[in-house]
Amino acid sequence: MSIQARRERERAERERLIVTAARELAETEGWDAVTTRRLAAEIEYSQPVLYSHFKGKEAIMAAVAVQGCADLAVELRQARAAAPGVREALAAVAETYTSFARRRPALYDAMFTHLVPLPFATQEAPEPLREAFGRLLAAVEPIAADGEDPGLLTETFWAALHGLATLTRSGRLPEPAHEQRLALLIGHFTGG
Amino acid sequence: MSIQARRERERAERERLIVTAARELAETEGWDAVTTRRLAAEIEYSQPVLYSHFKGKEAIMAAVAVQGCADLAVELRQARAAAPGVREALAAVAETYTSFARRRPALYDAMFTHLVPLPFATQEAPEPLREAFGRLLAAVEPIAADGEDPGLLTETFWAALHGLATLTRSGRLPEPAHEQRLALLIGHFTGG
DNA sequence: CAGCGATTCTAGCGTTGCTAGCCAATCTGC
DNA sequence: GCAGATTGGCTAGCAACGCTAGAATCGCTG
């Protein structure tokens, strides 16, 4: 059985290679540059190999999105841990979230903008997704008023951050006032 | 000069035809179905004709987006006019906005999700865009606290609505609780 | 070492957005 | 009223896309 084990190991390694190459290519040149041909060349295999690992391009993007959620979760955890108080933690998390979207647009798009075949709002959602949401929840929960469902409040807050991030990045909201909008949002959610 | 006038009239009419066909095709079958070939067949002309009117497919989508903004502006105006009070007006506008995104997803995507070559946050933005934003502003302005910039507050509120709309429609937020999230948002923005 | 499976590659299909160059219909000047 | 110029649409085709069938090659087994 050792030989089959090695094969599966190599296979898993190559799958990791594909996802990494797709992520790096997307982050440096955008998702439009991530074609199956280009990606195959990058990993030094032929095109059809990709399809022996993933159902199609969307599935590769989904895998990248999951990785991205893990990254985001780490950043959010650090941001919250470094903040002295409840309100500061929320602000830090919000700032980190929108900054993540600005710094890593391709990754963010795969996670939250593009249509990817991923279960999100269910228990079958991949762990990194639930993890990232959990980091938001941890920051929002303390500011929930009596009778407010923390989960729903987190979803609402998340949506607001997502809207700010995407509209700003697409040029529909002017960049400069971003911090002020963020402050307004925090203010209204912390009841100030 | 009358003959040239007629030509320009016919040309403008055909341009209207292109935009309308693109919008209808997108609304019924999604933007993926709007290929240049399909669109050309729909208007009963050949492909290259499209390029004598628009620089490319993106420009056609942009034209559809502008139409969509006009439609949205009308709906928002009606919603606000029918509401008895300030808070109700805000709720009605929010409800109308997200419902628009749900009822006309292709149109909404062209307006606010897809990358379209349109100036947004500047004075050169097409009139329907500024009009739609103005409808939001009119609903948000009355609930702005002292010292809060109504414009910035409107942008923030808009972003929240946009986030709710897109995340819900892409399945990242569960549909059923949408109304509750909307209520939470309104609550926090009206300081309740 | 021969044969057999599994796996990778070559080649190609159907579509996409977009464009070059031909061709015909229309307007202008004699 | 008619030849010449011009506008404008159409046919045909390019390069690139996601994806797949079938050939070919690799590595293990007896």
UniProtKB/TrEMBL annotation, chains A, B:
Pfam families: TetR_C_33, TetR_N. Residues 35-54 bind DNA. The keyword Lyase does not apply. InterPro entries: Homeodomain-like_sf (IPR009057), HTH-type_TetR-like_transc_reg (IPR050109), HTH_TetR (IPR001647), MT1864/Rv1816-like_C (IPR025996), Tet_transcr_reg_TetR-rel_C_sf (IPR036271). Residues 12-72 form the HTH tetR-type domain. Keywords: DNA-binding, Transcription, Transcription regulation. PANTHER family: HTH-TYPE TRANSCRIPTIONAL REGULATOR BETI, HTH-TYPE TRANSCRIPTIONAL REGULATOR RUTR. This is TetR/AcrR family transcriptional regulator. It comes from Streptomyces musisoli.
